[in-house]
Hints:
By secondary structure, the protein is mostly helical. The chain is built from 23 helices and no strands. It has helices spanning about 1-5, 10-15, 25-35, 40-50, 55-60, 60-75, 90-120, 135-150, 155-175, 180-185, 195-200, 215-225, 235-245, 250-270, 270-290, 295-310, 315-330, 340-350, 360-375, 385-400, 405-425, 430-440, 445-455. Helix 7 runs antiparallel to helix 8.
Amino acid sequence: MAGSSSGRSPSAEREPGPAAPSAEQALLRAGLALAERPGALRELSALLEAADPRWLRGSAGSAALGRLAAALGGLAAPPRREQDGAEPPGRDAALAAVAERAERVGAAFLVLLQKLEDARSQQPPGAAAAGPVPQRVLGHAFIFAVTHKDERPWTTARSRAVAQELLERLVRAAGCGSVEEFLRGKEGDEEGRFGEVMGLLKQELTKDTWKCNPASKDVFSWSLLRVSRPWLCPHLERVLPPALLLSDDFQEENKVLGVRCLHHIVLNVAVLLCLLDLLPVLERCQRRQGHGRATSPWDQVLQLVLTHMEAEHRLALRRVYAGTLPAFVTRLGILIVRHLKRLERVILGYLEVSDGPGEEARLGILETLQCTIEHAWPRMPCRLPVLLKALLRLLWDVHTERGPTPEPVRAALLHRATQCLILLDRCCQGQVKVLLAGLHSCCEESQLQECLRKVQEST
Length: 459
């Protein structure tokens, strides 16, 4: 017996076999295989079914999981159309193939999510807890689920059932109670998945690509309509361009969908500046219908804004209003004279109240006053006593108040107030210099002296 084994060296007995591939390596290979041959989906499903959850979660990086999820979603994407939306040849056969693949892709997503969830529950005591399911995985799985959950040319009853089950599983995997909470995040949590979804859809929603993938507009609109204020506000730059593209299309179906999206955006975002871009369209329509400038939507919106501003005491909203008001004044131009009486009351009221260290409201109102003087200068002489008194009081308050306002903010307030005094002087034929002549000589405060000097020396 000893002789039979004497031919093998001890080192040969201890020589290790080839190292098992890490989960990251295995998933990368599987993703590459999916891109090259759809038949690899069966192999991937078998790999996921057999994988130990802790092995999968322990050595698979978020990037590898994200790339795998992207490959899975791409495998079940509807057949791409031409840039103008025209269907490619062999459409029916391609749609049937997509529906069949979607069933298996949805099943693979379900297994992947289950394994990632199991990995969290199987952590031994004292071990570092596994993190949440990567956002990229959730985003790709969500796009797949919404693409296939409703009756479409590329779905069947079975593929729709798998997609709906996946959507429900996604909500549970994220620890949420609804799709809306899944997208926006929980109360006080800004880490919702809507931003991730919009980021993944970005390349599919450009002017040149949005018609190529027939599902993109559906995923975009379905997701958008489930995110309300205040969670939609940070995503305005991402959601407004696609909505405008849809509303500007020649097909009535797309126009209606785009208008519905725009209506949702207007209702759920602080969109006063957005309205400035939409109002010219409404104004052109009214002019074509024979309405005069008296019914301008600019005037109607500004009247409403000023009404709310007068009665608003919440500082956060005062900052929002004050920040958008200069744009309205600039757009109306000389026609701002129609609103001077109410606008003056708003300006005076907002200059009297400090709104915190950043002084956003006061700075916005000073910019508004500057724009108003520039556009409605013929009406300023009769308002000089009131405006001059308010600006001088502001200069004194900013100088004497010793609150938490940083020095750069104080300097900005003094600078803008000084610019308003200079503009008032120019449109009132030098009356401000005359009225301030004695004040400059008796003022002992250096900052105020510097402001008054700039007014006196302006030309």
